[in-house]
């Protein structure tokens, strides 16, 4: 994908997000765009930065570090979120490079993030990933365990960890109703927890990818995570 394509795609996606905001009767600018650069080269990230994009997402810590250690030094405005399932032994490297971990799916992971952040005296945002679709495997599956994790943070047991909201992935399906249901479930769960934990700022609803972000915006998404529509198809063998 060349520089012009990334720029053109970014503009298209941003215009389409604005349309979806409008269609949903939501204020313009209420949905943030996270550009998912996994499996794409550092140059594509730099092209996107030159086109005005600052917020990026990566799945795998090793790949993220390889790409973003350099990018973040060169472009201090660039910000990275980790969005993929995170193994405990990768947390140290992850908290070094990112500002938010969106894929928090267990209490143990929160404790590990706390420990690593304390070491380097850094606070980090997290999103609680909730399992809302039949096919997705990641995220908290039981509401009770999600609640327990939110409670843990609310009790200030992880002072370097700042809960900022929720993330989900809809099932991979052509069935729009199933996708609506999945996003609706995250919104309703977030509303319930926001009410029960008013002292936490759980504003972010990270939901929607290239194939389903319009539905996500209709369901109240505040952040869409878009890869393919910006950077093109991923070439997995290259990564
Ligand atoms: C890869 C990925 C995305 C982006 O998916 P596209 O379909 O390429 O837009 C979003 N969220 C997560 C968690 C991902 O792993």
Describe the structure.
With 239 residues, the protein is an alpha/beta fold. The chain has nine helices and eight strands. Helix 3 (61-74) links the parallel strand 2 and strand 3 (79-82). The mean pLDDT is 95. Bound molecules: pyridoxal-5'-phosphate. Pyridoxal-5'-phosphate (PLP) is lined by residues 36, 38, 59, 83-84, 169, 209-211, 225-229.
Q: Which key phrases capture this entry?
A:
single chain; 239 residues; alpha/beta; eight-stranded parallel β-sheet; 9 helices; globular; binds pyridoxal-5'-phosphate
Topology:
Layout: H1 3-23, E1 32-36, H2 42-50, E2 55-58, H3 61-74, E3 79-82, H4 91-97, E4 100-104, H5 107-119, E5 124-129, H6 143-154, E6 161-167, H7 176-196, E7 204-206, H8 213-218, E8 223-226, H9 228-231
Parallel strand pairs: 1-2, 1-8, 2-3, 3-4, 4-5, 5-6, 6-7
Helix pairs in contact: 1-2, 3-4, 4-5
Bound molecules: pyridoxal-5'-phosphate.
Pyridoxal-5'-phosphate is lined by residues 36, 38, 59, 83-84, 169, 209-211, 225-229.
Query: Which runs of at least 5 residues are low in confidence (pLDDT < 50)?
Result: none
Which structural class best describes the helix and strand composition?
Answer: alpha/beta
Largest sheet: 8 strands, parallel
Average residue-wise pLDDT: 95
The strand order across the widest sheet is 7-6-5-4-3-2-1-8
By DSSP (H or I, 4+ residues per run), the number of helices equals 9
